[in-house]
Design a protein that fits this description.
Helix content is 86%, strand content 0%. The protein has helices at 2-26, 29-37, 39-66, 69-104, 109-124, 126-141, 145-169, 173-198, 214-246, 250-286, 290-317, 319-324, 330-343, 347-362, 367-388, 396-415. With 416 residues, the protein is mainly α. The protein is built from 16 helices and no strands. The two termini are 26 Å apart. α1 packs antiparallel against α10 and α3 packs antiparallel against α4. The longest helix has 37 residues, at 250-286.
Length: 416
């Protein structure tokens, strides 16, 4: 079940990486820094809606596991109504607040204009992303993760082709990259909605039935709220980390941005395995099969640790060639390599943290994972940046923070 999710997220990361490779090579390192530095404020604003999509997936999977088709149908339509409302709010908030967030993050003057352009255009089409994430959550809850993979494949091809058209052909710079991303998300949104509307099972969508059922919305929000808050607060800590990176200049920003695209090839599969555990546990928990719930936890941990150790080693072995895909600027490559050396050997800690959190979340207990993730990936990082970072002479102090916080989170989750 996890494999289509992993391949889907890797496809998504591939077209995000294509954005950066094309921008870095055809527009320049400052533009690469602008696109990369926009990531943290974007995730800060959309993190809550992603948490609600997780909550919707848990609720739908539990009703499906219990064989309750009436409640499943109500949960599906309420989830989509929540997605539309959140998408519209994020469109307004992102366009209005994007510049203020980038200025607050100490974005250098030579990067700021491009970063503002990218973030405003991105949020102009964020509704498509929010609705797609919700439909993907519904498909995954029904065990149909292959569909999400197919639609992400179409979105990936669309994005790469449009990048080449807008950036290389029409020379639209970062604006072209943002427009390509919006249009590719529109493709995946339309295709997934179309499939659900033609479906014949309990997850079938009827546009006229999309509305907020108060009781069901309350349950979805109750389950998804801790994850949504967790995503936003962790994203806030990442904004602080990005602000620290920004203080080292445009080359550091571009190097960190390039590596963050590579980082996704580890992080996203780990998240996919965690999502698979959430759905698998949710359905078996709803069906009363606790033996399968417990066995799935060990399988989740084994898959995550083996995957991250293998990919971490592979990335370190090819670090020079990989980073030169993004830019020929050696200063940028040097910063990217430094990040790789502190990140790649320790991804297995992150896989333990997220694997256990995903499994616990599938039982409906979303608060304990939220607390652990907030303490390790947010509170600890804020304390480190404020009090320990000044003791480091270079940017290594920012990079070391990541594996140490992953280790703390894994330890706390194991203890729980």
């Amino acid at each position: 079940f996890a494999l289509p999710l992993i391949f889907g997220n890797l496809l998504q990361q591939m077209y995000n990486t294509a954005d950066s490779i094309i921008v870095g090579n055809f527009v320049g390192s400052n533009a690469l820094a602008a696109v990369g530095s926009s990531g943290s404020p974007i995730y800060l604003l959309i993190g809550f809606s992603q948490g609600l999509a997780v909550g919707a997936g848990v609720v739908v999977s539990q009703y499906l596991g219990a064989g309750d088709h009436k409640e499943t149908r109500e949960a599906v339509h309420t989830s989509l109504a929540i997605a539309v409302v959140m998408g519209l709010l994020l469109t307004v908030g992102g366009v209005a607040c994007g510049r203020a967030l980038l200025v607050a993050m100490n974005t250098p003057t030579e990067v700021l204009a491009d970063a503002v352009t990218y973030i405003r255009i991105y949020f102009g089409g964020v509704l498509f992303s929010v609705v797609y994430n919700m439909t993907a959550g519904i498909l995954n809850a029904a065990g149909n993760s292959r569909r999400s993979l197919v639609y992400l494949a179409w979105a990936s091809v669309t994005n790469i082709v449009l990048d080449l058209v807008f950036i290389v052909g029409l020379r639209m710079g970062v604006a072209g990259a943002a427009i390509a991303t919006d249009l590719s998300q529109l493709v995946s949104c339309v295709l997934s909605l179309r499939f659900l509307m033609k479906s014949e099972d309990a997850c079938r969508v009827e546009l006229s039935a999309i509305r907020l059922h108060r009781k069901m919305a309350g349950r979805i929000i109750r389950v998804g709220l801790p994850t949504g808050i967790q995503n936003m607060v962790i994203s806030f800590s990442n904004v602080l980390v990005q602000a620290s990176v920004n203080s080292y200049g445009a080359a550091a920003m571009a190097g960190f941005a390039a590596y963050m695209k590579i980082d996704g090839f580890n992080i996203l599969p780990v998240s996919s395995i965690s999502m698979a555990a959430t759905t698998f546990v949710g359905q078996n928990y709803g069906a009363g099969r606790l033996d399968r719930v417990k066995r799935s936890v060990w399988v989740t941990l084994a898959i995550g640790v083996i995957y991250t150790l293998c990919t971490g080693a592979a990335l370190l072995a090819g670090q020079d060639a990989i980073l030169h895909l993004f830019t020929a600027d050696e200063a940028v490559v040097t910063y990217g390599k430094l990040a790789m050396r502190w990140f790649c050997p320790f991804y297995f800690l992150l896989s333990i943290l997220h694997g256990l959190a995903g499994a616990v979340r599938g039982t409906g207990a979303s608060i304990p994972p939220m607390v652990v993730l907030l303490v390790s990936l947010c509170l600890f990082r804020v304390v480190w940046i404020q009090f320990l970072l000044p003791f480091f002479s270079g940017i290594e102090g920012v990079f070391i923070l990541y594996p140490v916080s992953w280790g703390l989170g894994a330890l706390l989750m194991i203890l729980y």
